Amino acid sequence: MLKLDLFDLERRQTLRVEGRVEVDDDLLEGLPFVYEEPFVVVLNATWAGSGELVVRGGVVGTVSQDCRRCLDRVERQVDVDITLLFAPSDLLEEDDTETYRLEMGVREIDLEPYVRDEVILAIPAFAECRVGCRGLCAGCGENLNETECMCSPGGMDPRWDALRALENK
Questions:
Q1: Closest CA to 11 of 56, 44, 46
Q2: Which one of 29, 67, 98, 130 is most buried, counting C-beta atoms within 10 A?
Q3: Quick one: which of 87, 7, 23 has its CA closest to 50?
Q4: Could you report how far apart the first and last alpha carbons of the chain are, in Å?
Q5: What are the φ/ψ torsions at residue 10 (nearest 5 degrees)?
């Protein structure tokens, strides 16, 4: 749990929040990547002079995705820097989309949804196993990085013949 106790923060003026997002946590369920080990989260919270709350820190972990060309598994390190700004409603401007609302009388803030959003935005939607990935053959499905395809041009879908004729002009 990544809970920030605002009363404890008021007494100390700065507070460190550490936690782990476990593999079976619902926080990252339904995302286009898989993670086999927990994400480590370290955040520092401080009050700014104007009544705003600033939370800074990072998330570190490893995710796996499918290569968008050949469907091989790609592992990548995730190291996300996070800066969150919370402000009371009376200090927020209407068009401010980067500052989160800090409701009056709230005793603690659950930082997990904010961490989730930052992690999702930091991980590219499409992964590639390597820069020159050749992908899969559209005809037979062979991985062109591992073998050469033996498909004959005659075995191609005839619905594409009109486009092939344009290509040959």
A1: 46
A2: 67
A3: 87
A4: 63
A5: -60, -40
Choose among 88, 11, 90, 96: nearest CA to 46. 11
Q: What is the pLDDT at residue 28? A: 61
C-beta separation of 137 from 144 below 8 A: yes
What are the helix and strand counts (H, E) for the chain? 3, 7
Give 107's contacts (C-beta < 8 A, 6+ positions apart): 5, 6, 7
Q: Which residue has the tokens 């989730």?
A: 116
- Whole-number Å distance between alpha carbons of 7 and 107: 6
How many other CB atoms are found less than 10 A from the CB of residue 137? Answer: 15
CB atoms within 10 A of CB 116: 20
The predicted-structure confidence for 63-96, as pLDDT tens digits, reads as follows 889 999 999 999 988 899 999 999 887 777 776 7
